[in-house]
Amino acid sequence: xEKAPDTITRTNESDPPAPSGxxxxxxxxxxxxxxxxxxxxxxxxxxxxxxxxxxxxxxxxASRVLAKGSLGMGESYMDGWWDSDQLDELICxxxxxxxxxxxxxxxxxxxxxxxxxxxxxxxRRAWQVGQAHYDLGNDFFEAMLGETMAYTCAxxxxxENSGDLDAAQHAKLDLICRKLGLQPGMKxxxxxxxxxxxxxxxxxxxGVECVGxxxxxxxxxxxxxxxxxLPVEFELKDYRDIAGRFDRVASIGMxxxxxxxxxxxxxxxxxxxLPEEGLFLLHTIGKNLRRDPTDPWIDRYxxxxxxxxxLGQIADASEDLFVTEDVHNFGADYDRTxxxxxxxxxxxxxxxxxxxxxxxxxxxxxxxLACAGTFRARTTQLWQLVMSPRGVSAGYRRxxx
Length: 401
Description:
single chain, alpha/beta, Rossmann fold, 15 helices, 9 strands, 42% helix, globular, CMAS, cyclopropane-fatty-acyl-phospholipid synthase activity, methyltransferase, SAM-dependent_MTases_sf
């Protein structure tokens, strides 16, 4: 491995200065050596020539990352302080060697305390993520997500080498419909329906009547237009305000916004709207350890008030409400999905550069590639769980088995 230089100077006079009062330039050399040693544990070099190595442009990068952890890592990338030709692999290597656990910043401690002390996903705060993230612009998401407008993990089984994102998303949507055993005339509730990709697929291919709820006005307006002529209804409301009865319930990529203090309420709602012979499918990103807090950078810049569940937390919250019939982990498919989104995002960026600016571009790139790295490292999972109120009497069989 190439030896890291003891000091780094700016390569671009336009690089932003270190925030006032945050760093001591006298210790920058010491921080640089400590940071190089830390990265070396994951076979990452500073200013090396391999694609996952880290090219540093700003003198205070090491100090900023060591002081602020993941928040400093992401913010310094947004500010142009460092680059990597393969950022996704850099993050994957850092996580596989648990470098994140060796830099415990004040921001991470505060994030953990906030989540413990406050309900960050209460009814008043629940709408914030819709305004901050999902309402960025339907044309922007359309360019990134493709024809299905599915903003959740695709299912790549059998088509890994095709690179066809739309086909993989259709495979995921059909997998969900088959796991739920949808039949013509059934009524499906989609909690957190997004732009309506699941409802559109279920209504078109399975003859199902659908009701979806979302906290994003942009999503609801766009989804209604896409589903014109189908038995599909969009409701702009929080999941806690859902009423009615449904044969099947699905929630695809929304549970990450519910928060552990509200998990029980969520499952009680799902149980309340289902008959005893109904089925509930939960599709969610999850974490391996319940004690791990939300990443501070993701919370500040991408998904405010997000909270990934652990399997144990899901089991605790659903206990005596549902029988868990099936658990399917295909989290490795999210790596491929995120890389496909990133490729589409970069290809379409010229359409949006004037609207969002270069710092947003670097923020979004970091979001997509860093998340791909977490799934590649298998520190983050993607689960589909099928649940029934009292257990399927003859036993539940996953499709294809």
